[in-house]
UniProtKB/TrEMBL annotation:
Belongs to the mandelate racemase/muconate lactonizing enzyme family. ENOSF1 subfamily. This is Mitochondrial enolase superfamily member 1. It comes from the Eukaryota. Pfam families: MR_MLE_C, MR_MLE_N. InterPro entries: Enolase-like_C_sf, Enolase-like_N, Enolase_C-like, L-fuconate_dehydratase, Mandel_Rmase/mucon_lact_enz_CS, Mandelate_racemase_C, Mandelate_racemase_N_dom, RHMD-like. Residues 202-296 form the Mandelate racemase/muconate lactonizing enzyme C-terminal domain. Its EC number is 4.2.1.68. Its cofactor is Mg(2+).
Amino acid sequence: MAGYGLVITSLDVKDIRFPTSLEAHGSDAMHGDPDYSCAYVIINLENSDLKGYGLTFTLGRGTEVVTRAVHSLSYLAVGKSLNDIYNDFAGFWRVITSESQLRWIGPEKGVIHLATAAIMNALWDLWARLENKPLWKLLTDLPPDKIVSTVDFRYISDVVTKEEAIRILEKSQKMKKEREEEMRIAGYPAYTTQPGWLGYKPEKVRELCKAYMDKGFRAFKIKVGSDLDSDRERCKMVRNIIGWENILMTDANQVWDVEEAIEWMKNLAEFKPYWIEEPTSPDDVLGHKRIAEGLAEFGIKVATGEMCSNRIMFKQFMQINALHFCQIDSCRLGGVNEILAVYFMAKKLNVPVCPHAGGVGLCEMVQHLQIFDYICLSGTKKDRYIEYVDQEHEHFEDTIVMRNAHYVAPTMPGYSTKFKESTIHDYEYPNGNVWRKILAQRI
Ligand SMILES: [Mg+2]
């Protein structure tokens, strides 16, 4: 196909930050003053205006470190033709995650993996643009063996093999058309965290719960973990507005010890939380299992994944039933290649995936992934939602479309991650128009 002979000439990387901490958007028990940000990658091609756009989400300071890591990795992509990459995408993923000097500062975790995600996400965006399809459609149209060929099965073949993944995908082929239609019209169900930020005053929480009920939302998540009395107050207030027939999720963003998590959540059990998200360290597989067991009699399930470093960690969590909801993050894992690996394991082990979103561009990205999951893998929406936060969508050219609390399948080519030019102009750190003004006031 035309275009695949094009050669990558350079990767531009930008540090884009939004001053969300000024109004406590995104605040939780662990992150009191996040400035929603991202390392933004643009892939340039020789003799072509076509580009790929990808990002990885960050919280402000630290974005300069991730952009630096993208620079360090970019030599692996420069000079490659798109054929070189897409004909053996898993091979390229292996190359970028196994660079013998850079893997020392990972491997497959932390800053270097966030940088990998930004590059891989840009490559997936580019592939979808080349095919003139939204990413979810690129994925659903690819033959099963081609999708599977993008995944590196090293370290996970004890749970799912390449052959099994192909068989799983083959099973859904005849249902694809009908499910696609459903995603274009009705869309995929969402829950919202909008009323839940810890820094919001009670009146604001109340107002937002009502507003989102009116928009059709029936599942709400609130942040907990700073103060038990105020958590109880807020749970009560939110329940009063949303009623008992709707869903209330809770999220502690890693603040508790294992036993503390169990005790704290027992004190919130009367409000019937659907899940407790990130109750303790994101690396503590056995701790999560203990919490899941300790809370089972109260009907509270455990969700985690937004800071789960890689497919190997997800494998362990799911193998021993330490999580009930798998919350993949489109930027924490190393791009769509690794996310697909997690989806295959989740399907095999029968764990529902509810992607983490919000931040910058996460809603834009995960809608593609979850729609693919519905069409080609899970075939069900039972116990599955995509997180929704109304934050920073206006900066993207292909902004998300919500209809009655559902994500409607995107129609524009790509991974929905291209910023408007004006956004880069205003929010590039530290010299964008908005930052110049803010920083001048701080001096
Ligand atoms: Mg969370």
